[in-house]
Amino acid sequence: MNTTAESNPTTGPWLVVGLGNPGDQYAGTRHNIGHMVVDELASRHGERWSRHKAGAAVVETRLRPGAPKIVLAKPASYMNLSGKPVSALVRFFSLTPEHLIVVHDELDIDFDTIRLKRGGGEGGHNGLKSISQSLGTRDYVRVRAGIGRPPGRMDVADYVLRPFGTTERKELPLHLDRCADAVESLIEDGMAAAQNRFH
């Protein structure tokens, strides 16, 4: 019998990392949508964040009684240095990369769209590059939360570090809710079922 994480999603624990930058000045920006998604997950389960020696804020929870433990995490480092705290958490909780889910902003898909994948390239995303380098593998799960591309000739760095626009902010709660649902589906149902539901 195949007992991989994907075919047997009840195994655990799982580490769910929401990428972003620390500090109030970045809290509502597009680059911090990963933080927003794990905040939504923590809120659903009535959990409060605590500091971990790995250099991250963490929450330990379960989707339901008897389900595998889930560790939600927000690295305290800047985005391009995410690898160090993430790899430290993977070691601390004795995880394999197959049980790591990284939630991040994605320029190459439209706002309010979600794409799920395991492995592959980083698409120029510095947070993913740092994680792949620190882990020595790209074989972890990504929840790609669409933010769309910048309008006109706006610089990409300026775009991702700006708050969501007025129209986007109206739709943002639903987008975050669906991203959180996608994380839970990955853990409960596996990659194929989650992709069928959210793609």
From TrEMBL:
Indicate whether Hydrolase appears among the record's keywords.
yes
The record's SUPFAM superfamilies line, in alphabetical order, gives: Peptidyl-tRNA hydrolase-like (SSF53178)
Catalytic residues?
31 (proton acceptor)
Database matches in InterPro entries: Pept_tRNA_hydro, Pept_tRNA_hydro_CS, Pept_tRNA_hydro_sf
**Reaction catalysed by this chain?**
an N-acyl-L-alpha-aminoacyl-tRNA + H2O = an N-acyl-L-amino acid + a tRNA + H(+)
Instruction: Provide any one GO MF term from the record.
Output: peptidyl-tRNA hydrolase activity
Keywords carried by this UniProt record: Cytoplasm, Hydrolase, RNA-binding, tRNA-binding
Report residues binding tRNA: 26, 78, 80, 126
Compartments where located: Cytoplasm
Q: Which Pfam families did the record assign?
A: Pept_tRNA_hydro
Site location (Discriminates between blocked and unblocked aminoacyl-tRNA): 21
What is the stated purpose of this protein? Catalyzes the release of premature peptidyl moieties from peptidyl-tRNA molecules trapped in stalled 50S ribosomal subunits, and thus maintains levels of free tRNAs and 50S ribosomes. Hydrolyzes ribosome-free peptidyl-tRNAs (with 1 or more amino acids incorporated), which drop off the ribosome during protein synthesis, or as a result of ribosome stalling.
PANTHER family in the cross-refs: PEPTIDYL-TRNA HYDROLASE
Q: Which HAMAP family match?
A: Pept_tRNA_hydro_bact
Quaternary state and partners of this protein? Monomer.
Provide the protein name.
Answer: Peptidyl-tRNA hydrolase
Organism annotation: Citricoccus muralis
